[in-house]
């Protein structure tokens, strides 16, 4: 798979996962506000942070693949 294809896969996927993680963090906060048992909202919050950080990692990988594409695959402009 080329760096461009990886970039076009990882960057949007990372953004989607970041959005899902942010929504889950909000959900965990609302569970806390509704006074649900601590064990429940802490578990949901922990899972939310895992998802959010996974999204940041995916997006970061997309940025890295973009740089590699620009350095290795994109044709150099004529001088």
From TrEMBL:
Regions that span the bilayer: 7-29, 41-64
The organism's place on the tree of life at top rank: Bacteria
Keyword line: Membrane, Transmembrane, Transmembrane helix
Protein name: Uncharacterized protein
Species this chain originates from: Hymenobacter nivis
């Amino acid at each position: 798979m080329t760096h461009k294809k990886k970039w076009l896969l990882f960057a949007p996927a990372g953004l989607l996962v970041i959005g899902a993680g942010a929504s889950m963090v909000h959900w965990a906060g609302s569970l806390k506000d509704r006074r649900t048992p601590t064990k429940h909202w802490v578990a949901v919050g922990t899972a939310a942070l895992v998802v959010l950080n996974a999204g940041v990692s995916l997006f970061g990988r997309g940025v890295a693949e973009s740089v590699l594409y620009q350095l290795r695959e994109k044709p150099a402009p004529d001088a």
